């Protein structure tokens, strides 16, 4: 189904008095077409360059914006050994997003490195804290990062409290299969931290495998039963060229259930597919965006590609959307108007 976007036009008077037609800026609250580009500063530091589709070297944010991306997602680590993804690095990238008139999603991992379904390790500085202190650390870290952003007039529209918390976070204290109550209290600590700095920021709880309804019901039923609050259900979806259509159908059913069961908004926080399957990836993204937009009462908020700018198997990652010459593949055309 073709989707036609009509730009809203406004008028203003120039110094000479002529009426000039100009496009209104995209208002906050419209659909998020996003990219997580947390690797960008690390890539640039070793000389990686980025090129538009015509082969002209440009700043990555410019290239992405020209492809329809209007929102940037940035992961936050507590005290990473390399410094990348710490508060200062996140702030530098968020400033670039703001300068490009892009919105921001902040993704707290509550770890010194990767947090995902296979690992949810405590930051070294929190390793020996009792549970009451651990909750306070989650809140204070959340507040500190968001306050640093706010000092630069950057108010994230969305904030993830945890990353792919399929079995909770901050193991073993917050492991959901061990203590859903502890996990819920940690989520609540993050939620309260976000709202204390920016009440309008929407809090996201993010789970992988967006096609797995039983997993999502287990997590969100458990959080609800234990008093945790959230605004948005976040999902990851990494299908293959062979199964994306079936996975998208399952994901739609899950998204509709999240809306009906909890009244939640839904965001696809991460998508990706092997760079060699760029055409299939484009079709997959266009389809999942259409499905996300179809949710009742405009509950579908957006879709984010995870590290599309990674190329030449940067850090061993092969699911980017830039080719080996550093140019966007056709997968990125899915985000164009």
UniProtKB/TrEMBL annotation:
UniProt keyword Repeat, yes or no: no
UniProt KW keywords: Glycosidase, Hydrolase
Claim: Iron-sulfur is one of the keywords in the record: no
InterPro entries: GH, Glyco_hydro_53
GO BP terms in the entry: pectin catabolic process
GO molecular function list: arabinogalactan endo-1,4-beta-galactosidase activity; glucosidase activity
Domain of life of the source: Bacteria
Descriptive protein name: Arabinogalactan endo-beta-1,4-galactanase
Catalytic activity: The enzyme specifically hydrolyzes (1->4)-beta-D-galactosidic linkages in type I arabinogalactans
Family: Belongs to the glycosyl hydrolase 53 family.
UniProt feature coiled coil, ranges: none
The protein's Enzyme Commission number: 3.2.1.89
Protein species of origin: Pedobacter petrophilus
PANTHER family membership: ARABINOGALACTAN ENDO-BETA-1,4-GALACTANASE A
Name of the top EC class for this enzyme: hydrolase
């Amino acid at each position: 189904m073709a989707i036609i976007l009509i730009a809203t036009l406004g008028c203003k008077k120039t110094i000479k008095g002529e009426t000039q037609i100009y496009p209104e800026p995209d208002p906050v609250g419209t659909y998020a077409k996003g990219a997580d580009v947390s690797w960008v500063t690390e890539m640039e530091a070793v000389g990686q360059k980025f090129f538009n589709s015509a082969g002209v070297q440009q700043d990555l944010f410019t290239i992405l914006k020209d492809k329809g991306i209007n929102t940037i997602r940035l992961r936050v680590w507590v005290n990473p050994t390399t410094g990348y993804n710490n508060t200062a690095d996140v702030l530098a990238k968020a400033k670039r997003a703001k300068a490009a008139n892009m919105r921001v999603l902040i993704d707290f991992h509550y770890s010194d490195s990767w947090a995902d379904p296979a690992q949810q390790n405590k930051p070294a500085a929190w390793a020996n804290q009792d549970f009451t202190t651990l909750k306070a650390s989650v809140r204070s870290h959340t507040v500190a990062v968001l306050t640093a952003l706010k000092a630069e007039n950057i108010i994230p529209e969305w904030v993830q409290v945890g990353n792919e918390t399929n079995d909770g976070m901050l193991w073993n204290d917050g492991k959901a299969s061990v203590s859903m109550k502890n996990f819920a209290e940690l989520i609540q600590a993050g939620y309260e931290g976000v709202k204390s700095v920016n009440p309008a920021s929407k809090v996201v709880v993010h789970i992988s495998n967006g096609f797995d309804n039983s997993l999502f019901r287990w997590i969100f039923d458990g959080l609800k039963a234990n008093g945790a609050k959230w605004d948005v259900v976040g999902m990851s979806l990494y299908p293959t060229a062979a199964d994306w259509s079936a996975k998208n159908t399952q994901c739609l059913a899950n998204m509709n259930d999240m809306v009906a069961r909890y009244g939640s908004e839904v965001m696809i926080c991460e998508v990706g597919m092997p760079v060699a399957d760029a055409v299939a990836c484009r079709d997959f993204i266009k389809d999942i965006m259409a499905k996300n937009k179809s949710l009742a009462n405009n509950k579908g908020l957006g879709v984010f590609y995870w590290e599309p700018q990674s190329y030449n198997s940067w850090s061993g990652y092969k699911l980017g959307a830039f080719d080996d010459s550093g140019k966007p593949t056709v997968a990125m055309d899915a985000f164009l108007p």
